[in-house]
Specification:
Layout lengths: L2 E8 H10 L4 E3 L1 H9 L2 H7 L8 E12 L6 H11 L4 E9 L6 E3 L1 H15 L4 E5 L6 H9 L3 E6 L6 H6 L2 E6 L9 E3 H4 L2 E6 L7
Parallel strand pairs: 1-3, 1-6, 3-4, 6-7, 7-8, 8-9
Antiparallel strand pairs: 2-10, 4-5
Helix pairs in contact: 5-6
């Protein structure tokens, strides 16, 4: 039995995790999902092992928001590079507001629709969701109700407790040690960087 995996990556969330982890460049979303899919937590669903994989990542979608104003050159080049990754696609929402009140719009909806349609049509067995947002609790619950499995990949910082409970399994993005048997991959494994696409610095650093 081979389990088909689709990855759903919240780009703004992943960018914040990378900046918070001190990374210089944008992460590679395809590598992130592939690394998570090769863990024993995911392989066990398919009856595979780390030596004999039965998991196949067939699609990764990277979701981000386009501002009304022209986007900076680095981010636009990063989007172009992501789109050229194998079996990787872009999904775009938009930004509204000013300064600290800027918010993503439609991105969460896009992720939710893609996850639900995939679960209804059974085009994947396992969804790897990269986010920490509680807004996805109903989506995760419905995917599971439809027979799909959901692996959550997120930083423990700011992670919604409701989302953590809703998902089947959880991999923590962290550079620390495994504590109490918690599923864990170090950030240097998950956040492989795409050279040439520097991340912005947090203000005050």
């Amino acid at each position: 039995m081979t389990c088909v995996v689709h990855g759903f990556v919240d780009g703004a969330y992943l960018r914040e995790v990378a900046i918070g982890s001190g990374y210089a460049c944008y992460p590679n979303p395809r590598d992130l999902v592939a690394a998570a899919a090769r863990t024993s937590l995911v392989e066990s669903w398919a009856g595979g092992t780390l030596l004999e994989s039965r998991v196949r990542v067939t699609r990764v979608t990277f979701y981000d928001a386009q501002p009304d104003d022209p986007v900076d050159d680095v981010r636009e080049r990063h989007w172009n590079a992501v789109e050229l990754l194998n079996d990787t696609h872009l999904g775009f929402g938009f930004l509204r507001g000013e300064g600290r009140r800027v918010r993503q719009k439609a991105v969460d909806t896009l992720i939710a629709v893609d996850m639900l349609v995939g679960a209804f049509t059974r085009i994947y067995d396992i969804a790897i969701l990269v986010t920490g947002d509680a807004d996805f609790v109903p989506v995760v619950a419905e995917v599971r109700r439809r027979g799909g499995a959901v692996m959550l990949v997120a930083s423990s910082d700011g992670l919604s407790a409701e989302l953590l409970r809703a998902a089947d399994r959880y991999i923590r993005i962290s550079s620390g040690l495994v504590i109490g048997g918690e599923a864990h991959l170090p950030s240097e494994v998950l956040l492989n960087q795409m050279d040439g696409f520097p991340l912005p610095r947090r203000s005050g650093r």
